[in-house]
Every structure is written in structure tokens, then in C-alpha cells.
Amino acid sequence: MSIRTDKVASLLQKELSAIFEKELPRNGPLLTVVEVKVTNDLGIARVYVSVIGGERERVDAVNRLQNETKYIRKLLSAKIRHQFRRIPELEFYEDRMFEKANRIEQLLKQALHEGRDESSS
Questions:
Q1: Are 29 and 51 in contact, with CB atoms under 8 Å apart?
Q2: CB hemisphere CA count around 102 (13 angstroms)
Q3: Which of 20, 36, 48, 63 is the most exposed place for a label (fewest CB within 10 A)?
């Protein structure tokens, strides 16, 4: 990525985080914008969100984001329209690194526990 796309991605991440925090209803799981990747032509922004909740809640949250893309883009446009000629199209994806990190942590704890059991025998 170039410096320009990095700056745009950073701004979009900051503004989308604020939108999720203040403007979208909070009657569901916790949404966090983990990363934003912008294409070189600044036409598409891929937004990776972490959803903390049950499996069904995560699926519903990502589907809701994908269905409300136009509305979210409109809110974003109202905040940053003076900095961009054209607001990028938004694509939402679930980032499951939190879940993977928890699984790795569980496996490490299990391996350490089993290692202690074997050494004490």
C-alpha cells in the first residue's frame, strides 16, 4: 500500500469506528473495526470487523452491515465529504483473529498442563 492509501484507510477506520460506536443501534454484539484496506484507486474499502458475541449474533451482525452498506456510506460521507471527492464503496468482512487467538491460547494452556502432568508422573 502507498502512503496515500494508508492514510485513507486510517481515516476510514477512525470514522467508521465512531459511526459504529455512536450512530448504529447497540442492541446486538460488540462491533470493532479491526482494519480497513483500500484499493489503489481508492474506489473500494474493505472493512474488517471483529464481532464479539455468539455464532448466530456474529452472522446476523455481518449480514446487517452488508445490508446497510449504503446507509453507513451515507453517514461516512456526511463526516468526511470535504476530504474526498468520491467516498469509496464499502465491503464488510468478519475478522476472526480474536477467535483464533483464543483457540491458540486454549491449546497452549492445554499443552502446558499436559506437559506438567507427564513430568510429575
A1: yes
A2: 4
A3: 63
At residue 120, the pLDDT reads: 63
Handedness of CA 69, 75, 78, 84 (dihedral sign): negative
Helix (H, G, I), strand (E, B) or coil at 117: helix
**Residue keyed to cell 491458540:** 104
| Amino acid at position 25, single letter | P
Give the C-alpha separation, 14 to 16, whole Å.
6
Separation CA 52–CA 37 (nearest Å) = 21
Continuous H helices in the chain: 3-22, 55-67, 69-80, 97-120
Answer whether 95's CB lies under 8 Å from 35's CB: yes
Cβ atoms of 8 and 42 closer than 8 Å: yes
| 23 touches 71 (CB < 8 A) | no
The ranges of the chain with pLDDT < 70 are 1, 25-26, 98-99, 118-121
Q: pTM of the entire structure?
A: 0.77
